[in-house]
UniProtKB/TrEMBL annotation:
SUPFAM superfamilies: Ankyrin repeat. The lineage of its organism: Eukaryota, Fungi, Dikarya, Ascomycota, Pezizomycotina. GO terms for molecular function: NF-kappaB binding. This is Ankyrin repeat and SOCS box protein 14. Pfam families: Ank_2 (PF12796). One of its GO terms (biological process) is cellular response to tumor necrosis factor. PANTHER family: NF-KAPPA-B INHIBITOR ALPHA, NF-KAPPA-B INHIBITOR ZETA. GO terms for cellular component: cytosol.
């Protein structure tokens, strides 16, 4: 499996040795280039097949198989699509055509398997690493147990999730996230705006009490009340990047 030439080998000057971490992480080859099996001379095709086997195990709910594959070198953080890149200034547009296969952690959340979500977290899965957001997916599915697990596991990119809760009027989920570390003062402006526009006084008061700033934009309802999605659809999005603002 791990012999032969690799037509997709990555130029180390462009990837592994780059000093610009954000630039490296923008490209879909980053997880291939850094994969531990690279050192064992596995080629790109082999690595991708191993990672696909991990996804198949997750989809089938086979915890023992998932654990075995992780023991043998499969990675909980692996994705050939967009990562979350943090920029200080400017507007950025970046498409994914077609949509790549979901990251392992996102797929476990999508399948609603809390045991596998916990297993992957214990093996180093990073909830905020990719544009496909496990936290948003868990909120959309009403899985408060998984939401709590993700937040305890390091999920901090919460703005879209808080906004979704305001759009759906899910005060119980909102209270739970705010109690477990979601920063309304940094990431609650969009949710607060939606609550005010919808006339949801209880939600608006809750967010205001936690420090959520208020802003008033002349937006049509189709814009401010549109659910942003979990990041898995192949679409072109425009983001204004800044502290507490959406990022890609």
């Amino acid at each position: 499996m791990n012999s032969g030439s690799d037509s997709e080998l990555i130029n180390s000057a462009e990837s592994l040795d780059s000093d610009d971490e954000d630039m490296v992480q923008r490209f879909s080859f980053a997880d291939i280039a850094r994969h531990p099996l690279r050192a064992a001379r596995y080629n790109t095709t082999d690595i991708v097949m191993i990672q696909k086997a991990l996804l198949a195990g997750i989809q089938a709910g086979q915890k023992d198989m998932v654990a075995l594959l992780l023991d043998r070198g499969a990675q909980p953080n692996f994705y050939r699509g967009r990562r979350v890149a943090k920029y200080l200034f400017g507007l950025h547009m970046l498409p994914d055509y077609p949509a790549p296969v979901a990251p392992p952690h996102f797929l476990a959340v999508q399948c609603g398997n809390e045991e596998l979500v916990e297993c992957l977290l214990s093996r180093g899965a990073e909830p905020d690493r990719y544009h496909a957001s496990p936290l948003y997916r868990a909120v959309a599915d009403g899985r408060k147990d998984i939401v709590l697990m993700l937040m305890q596991g390091g999920a901090t990119n919460v703005e879209s999730s808080l906004k979704l809760e305001a759009q759906r009027g899910d005060q119980s989920m909102m209270e739970s996230m705010l109690e477990h570390g979601a920063r309304a003062d940094l990431c609650g402006a969009a949710a607060h705006h939606v609550a005010l526009r919808k006339g949801d006084d209880d939600m608006a008061c809750l967010l205001k009490s936690k420090g959520a700033p208020a802003y008033y934009l002349c937006e049509p309802k189709d814009d401010w009340d549109k659910e942003e999605g979990d990041g898995t659809k192949p679409e072109l999005k425009l983001y204004g990047c800044g502290r507490g603002m959406p990022q890609f």
